[in-house]
Amino acid sequence: RAKEKGGNTFQLYYQEMNHRSLEQLNLENQLRKALDKSEITVFYQPLVDLKTGSITGMESLVRWKHPQGMISPGDFIPLAEETGLILPIGNWVLRESCIQNKKWEEQGLPLLTVSVNISVNQFHQPGFVKYVQQTLSETGLDPHRLCLEITENVAMKNVSYIMDTLSKLKEMGVQVSIDDFGTGYSSLNYLKRFDVDTLKIDQSFIRELTTDEDNEAIVTALIAMSKQLKIKTLAEGVETREQLEFLIAKGCDQIQGYIFSRPIPPEEFALLVTNQQNLFNMN
Ligand code: C2E
Ligand code: MG
Ligand code: MG
Ligand code: MG
Fold first, then answer.
1. Distance, CA 190 to ligand 4 centroid (Å)?
2. What is the pLDDT of residue 23?
3. CA 120–ligand 3 middle distance (angstroms)
4. Which ligand is nearest to the CA of 234?
5. CA 252 to CA 244: how far, in whole Å?
6. ipTM attached to this prediction
7. Residues in domain EAL (predicted)?
8. How do beta strands 55-66 and 40-49 pair?
9. DSSP class of residue 264?
């Protein structure tokens, strides 16, 4: 289209494109080296049980400590997916999360479950189950203390491979949750066929929970349906007291959100869990 408007516009358009792809290439090269330079790191966000009010686990969320500032996964995971770098990065995050959880266990923190995001490509890489198994045995983490978060989009590929992979993981004792539920190509059929432990209700439904009747209906139905299917529910992105009270009233099992804590570095997370313990002990 730019070409039709004349040479100058085309040239500008062309330069712009070139500039952008150079930038992309630059970022890609930097990301390629980031793992070796220990710039890739993990933050943890508590998952809170609504019956006991205590932290039962944490989601590990990758961060890139770029020399020019922290980069959120939303800004480099797509690039990592495109370039295949998601495999070494994702596998590193999985390993690091297991190491960290085991460390906390050895330090005497209450037993926690660490939830790790697994991208579609990572889940479908040959030898994925073996990698999980190896990581667990090398780090010594109890398989029950690991949860893998997959999205509905994982299920779009080879259904028999997914069933097979999930059942192998379940046999090992690893937990599985469906992340961002309701935003992908949801099929209720999958919930029946795939043996998952937890359904994570996407934060887009939680955000306007108490102001949007449709969201209220959807969340209520998801919680009720999950109960019938004996799948636990976790609400993502809980920020307000109203949202929290609504979810408690509906019988949601767990929450995650800024109302309790943002994703924080490991040292801070350990303090949070320890202080929670102290608070309980004092009462
Ligand atoms: P996700 O797995 O759905 O993770 C939850 C995201 O919601 C996190 O964003 C978290 O910081 C944010 N969040 C939690 N509570 C609240 C809240 O109360 N309000 C708001 N506004 N946001 C909240 P984050 O860390 O930026 O991660 C974004 C996404 O990037 C993740 O969404 C996940 O899809 C992806 N991601 C993160 N780490 C990894 C990883 O290690 N591997 C892969 N493949 N993807 C990852
Ligand atoms: Mg997640
Ligand atoms: Mg999520
Ligand atoms: Mg989400």
1. 19
2. 77
3. 14
4. 3
5. 9
6. 0.98
7. 24-277
8. antiparallel
9. B
Is the Cβ–Cβ distance between 102 and 62 less than 8 Å? Answer: no
Residue pLDDT, tens place only, 63-121: 999 998 999 999 999 999 999 999 999 999 999 999 999 999 999 999 999 999 999 99
Q: Is the CB of 258 under 6 A from ligand 1?
A: yes
Nearest-atom index, ligand 1, CA of 200: 3
For 175-207, the pLDDT digits (tens) are 999 999 988 876 787 788 888 999 999 999 999
Cβ-based neighbours of 89, under 8 Å, separated by 6 or more = 35, 40, 62, 80
The pair of structure tokens assigned to 61 is 């969320």
- Bridge partners for 62 per DSSP: 42
How far apart are alpha carbons 187 and 176 in whole angstroms?
17
Burial of residue 283 (CB within 10 Å: 0-12, 13-18, 19+) is exposed
105 Cβ below 6 A of ligand 1 = no
> 262 φ, ψ to 5°?
-80, 170
Q: State pTM to two decimals.
A: 0.91
